[in-house]
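>> received
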Amino acid sequence: MRANRLVRTMGMLTMLSAVVAVPAPAQEAKQRWDQLCQIRKDKLDLILPEAMRENGIDMWIVASREGHDDPNAAMLGGGYVGDIGYYIFTDRGGGRIERAALGIGGAAFDQCPLYDIKGPPSDLRAFVEARVPARIGINVATEIGTADGLSHSLHEALRAALGPDLAARLVSAEKLVSDFRSRHSATEIAAFARAGEYSRTIAERALSNEVIRPGHTTTGDVAWWMMEELHRQGLDNSFGLPSIYVLGPGERGPTSGDHMIQPGDLITMDWGVNYLLAYTDMKRMAYVLKPGENAPPPGVQRAFDKAMEIRRMILDAIRPGVTAGEALAAVNRRVAQTPGLALGRYDDPSPDPKYSDVVIGSHSVGDWGHGSGPSMADFNPLRMTYALRPGNFLSIELFLYTPVPEWGERKIKIPLEDNGVVTARGFEWTAPPASRILLVK
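>> returned
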């Protein structure tokens, strides 16, 4: 009997070991891979043809080298490049752009089939000659970094491979790249919305008692808790370490450093999440309650409410068809005409307490934390000349510098930033924006 029991026990152990030995299915990894593959297909099928044709470019050549990927390589399918590889897109008429990959391969690349033609990089000249392109776009740019991936040596190698006649047809693809990266399919919008949910959820948890214990937790502790959440959830970020710092009542102090969070602090956080090549850029604010308080000081709340009114002015100016610069000018005019408000300079407010200074930097977002498309921000002068179109992502960012009577004469900064998409109706949020000052007990 004991022998039978031993046999049964050994059998069960064998079955258990067999179960343990079978690897768990990579459900989340596979789901994300499938979603990214569909995003890439939609980008090349739906967005690339209009971007190339609007910019009058017959062929777009994107060159990569091992250890030096072009900024667009990930969206174009990635892949392994041994020496030099070329993604080549040719407008041969019809509804689709011909797609070729020369010198690019690998298992992951092959499992998301995007390209019609594959071959060695030595085929480049014959391939291009057979298609007789008049204008060949390459990634050299004056302002937009994502359109400036062609290094000096790669540029020389490309010209040599093409020969003088074809090399004379090379033109900058800066505007093409901006249009390709900043116009988005439904699958990209879905990924961006998911990235926004990750962003705001982690941020609002970070600025709560789940993470902050006043008198014990530093701003650096909060930042590294957020980084750990990214690691745990298999995400990346837009700007490195999140920026956590104090807005008042005292001086700002170190960002994401050793400032010990205390009752009475007003804290802000600026950061972004990268999910499936979709990047966010957003802010949140929190007030640490003093004993006996159940709300921020009235002056702080009034300042926040005033910033929300300015955000509404920005949203009212956004509509498809106008340039980003025209939209920014419309907002600036409205601010300048509003009693008690004045246009200001970033982190350099005027000393006049009768006026609250407003700075608007509502920039492109999505393909990067600071994106490649139309931008309502003076720090993106070229992108201000680009027209807003449905499918463009914008980060609605503003700063208000205003006195808080409870905290003396110094103006404090109230930052707001959240993300959304331009539509035929104007602008729509892709995740719930900040609507209140968060409270920490």
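>> Residues 184-440 form a domain with the Creatine Amidinohydrolase fold (CATH 3.90.230.10).
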